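Ops channel
N.P.: pipeline sanity check, posting one input/output pair.
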């Protein structure tokens, strides 16, 4: 028995080492950015570099939060992301439910078409979409940007919701129908509470995807008043004055914090939601 336990422990060592190495690769740049955000600009570019600042300062964070355009950029990021996810759920929940529960001619072809639309690179649609919006005078429209962002996450939302609904036993709905419940009542009062973790997972993925989107806002809403935190961050790289690395790292930390806090808040639902659709019956 001790030999078997020893072999099992020895077999876990490569996995542990691999996880440790991956953790360093992933967390290393984040920790470096975090440390740099507390440095002065002189210390941020000193050679050889220092791992942690000798005299940590909050000056960079103060500059970020006192920037007149920061709150506007933050509001735009929140509005676009939350709005896109709401639209995607309003479309994806009924569509996913229909795909899971109804049988109709051409259903498989339709679902594959929906899936195929998510495989089209967004860059390939930039030029025709730009000319269309410019022609009808809808450039720099926050509503249009939100709709475009939602269109990019709707296909995956439909497929995820369909899988989550399929994991709910059909007998539960049959019993509700016998009791006189309508289809809307079944979806609202029965299905939605049961697939709540799945909805949380889909919403989390959607917000992270839209929050990190740069090209859509940069192309279709070039006005400064319509830009997001991501666009503002990239614009600093092209600033004629030069790059302040300590300030930029503080900006990165602040811009990333809303998504990090949100993920920490819904982590339990997110994990259970990702695994819920994998088990049927």
């Amino acid at each position: 028995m001790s030999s078997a336990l020893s072999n099992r422990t020895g077999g876990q060592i490569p996995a542990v080492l691999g996880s440790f190495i991956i953790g360093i690769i992933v967390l290393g740049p984040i920790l470096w950015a975090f440390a740099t955000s507390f440095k002065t600009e002189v210390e941020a570019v000193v050679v050889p570099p220092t791992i942690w600042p000798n005299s940590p300062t909050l000056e960079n964070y103060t500059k970020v939060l006192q920037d007149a355009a920061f709150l506007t950029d933050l509001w735009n990021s929140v509005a676009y992301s939350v709005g896109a996810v709401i639209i995607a759920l309003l479309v994806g929940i009924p569509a996913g439910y229909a795909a899971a529960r109804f049988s109709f001619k051409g259903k498989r072809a339709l679902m594959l078409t929906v899936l195929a639309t998510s495989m089209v690179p967004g860059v390939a649609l930039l030029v025709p979409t730009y000319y269309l919006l410019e022609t009808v005078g809808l450039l720099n429209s926050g509503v249009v940007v939100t709709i475009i962002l939602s269109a990019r996450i709707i296909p995956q939302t439909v497929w995820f919701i369909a899988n989550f609904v399929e994991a709910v036993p059909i007998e539960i709905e049959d019993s509700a129908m016998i009791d006189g419940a309508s289809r809307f009542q079944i979806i609202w009062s029965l299905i939605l509470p049961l697939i709540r973790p799945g909805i949380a997972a889909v919403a989390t993925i959607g917000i992270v995807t839209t929050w990190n989107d740069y090209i859509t806002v940069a192309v279709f809403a070039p006005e400064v008043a319509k830009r997001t935190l991501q666009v503002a961050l990239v614009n600093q790289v092209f600033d004629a004055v030069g790059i302040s690395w300590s300030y930029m790292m503080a900006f990165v930390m602040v811009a990333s914090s809303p998504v990090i806090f949100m993920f920490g808040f819904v982590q339990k639902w997110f994990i259970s939601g990702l695994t819920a659709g994998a088990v049927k019956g």
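N.P.: looks fine end to end. The chain has one domain: 58-276.
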